[in-house]
Amino acid sequence: MIRLQKAKALKGELTVPGDKSISHRSVMFGAIASGVTEITGFLQGADCLSTIRCFSQMGVPVENDGSRVLVRGRGLRGLLPPAQVLDCGNSGTTVRLLSGILSGQSFSSVLTGDASIQKRPMNRIIRPLSQMGADISSVSGNGCAPLAIHGQPLRGIHYQSPVASAQVKSAILLAGLYADGKTTVTEPALSRNHTELMLQYFGARTESCGATVSVEPAQELYGQKISVPGDISSAAYFIAAGLMIPGSELLIRNVGINPTRDGILRVCRMMGADITLLNENHENAEPTADLLVRSSSLKGTVIEGELIPTLIDELPVIAVMACAAEGTTIIRDAAELKVKESNRIQAVAENLAAMGADAAETEDGLIIRGGKPLHGASIACRADHRIAMSFAVAALWADGETVIEDSSCVNISYPGFFRQLEQLEWSSFL
Ligand code: S3P
Q1: Does any ligand 1 atom lie closer than 6 A to the CB of residue 166?
Q2: How far, in Å, is the centroid of ligand 1 from the Cα of 267?
Q3: Which stretch of DSSP H or E encloses residue 227?
Q4: Domains and CATH numbers, the chain
Q5: What three-state secondary structure class fits 151?
Q6: Does the CB atom of residue 48 touch ligand 1 within 6 A?
Q7: 313 is catalytic
């Protein structure tokens, strides 16, 4: 449990941990490539460590000294049958992407995870992978993990995905590496494209056009050096705090600004935020920049449509930020939030209400009437890291004391979060 008080101006520089999506993929792709993949900036959060553990169970040597990860790839067809069930912990990315890879192997495996994972929808990958010829099923027959997979020869398909989900898209593309022909996915709106970028970097043939991406079957992928940029989803908490708390000025270094992930920056600008991008680097597939964030008078906005997948994980903290904005903020087309680590629409609405906000839950989003002061409250995180961190930000703006219950869930994506926040508050005070 963590207790937080209203903050004074936040000032200083910080670096956030590596991008979670890119960290997962760098280990997965390294594991099925030939040669060594060297990763720096890898996120040492519980989710990404689950990915490492799963591949270790399939005979992939991974050395992780905390600052550099070396993956000695076994090639596309060199993974060993796991002796035990593969435990993906809390990580949806691990279960879904790994399912794509395992569908094309020549062995059987079972994937599971924690209580939250065992409630999350897996039919969204079972359906397309089955169309490719995969033998994949939900062990309890409820469309959730545990999943049993018996590797099979796969065929290429063109899948029209009903959801904009990078996990669904990536599971299909990874299975496509093992298929007998081209595999194509079309999404209703483009989701994060780290898989397609990294597949290309590892030597696979991919083609993207709008919200459609194809991959050709591969004979071999080649190990690479990867420098993982800071996670914009982690930077989001400091962006929001910096904007909301009067007198703040924060420089957040080396943040990934891939256009399929930078929706929060676009929304902040729509809300009138003062954010400057410095040292922009577009030389690598994954662009980066330093973000200079200055406290701003915010105004309400509408967040909908194709913007949603580009900021899906940031919506809880955007909802918090909307409380400090003048006017109404409407979030719609975001029903996906209900099937994340928790039902995030409900979790945000309930916790905002506990803090005195004027926030209403809708079928596919939230309506927040800003400008009302927040007061401290006891926050139920529902074991969801993004709820814990979003409400830590709310706590810094609210009057009185806020208690974040079971705050250790932040370890999923941001192990040093509270320490970094405390250091920043302390150094800003000096
Ligand atoms: C992720 C994709 C998103 C996101 C999750 C990470 C990924 O999920 O919410 O935190 O790494 O591909 P969906 O693909 O289900 O939208």
Answers
A1: yes
A2: 19
A3: strand 225-227
A4: 2-18+229-428 (3.65.10.10), 20-227 (3.65.10.10)
A5: coil
A6: no
A7: yes
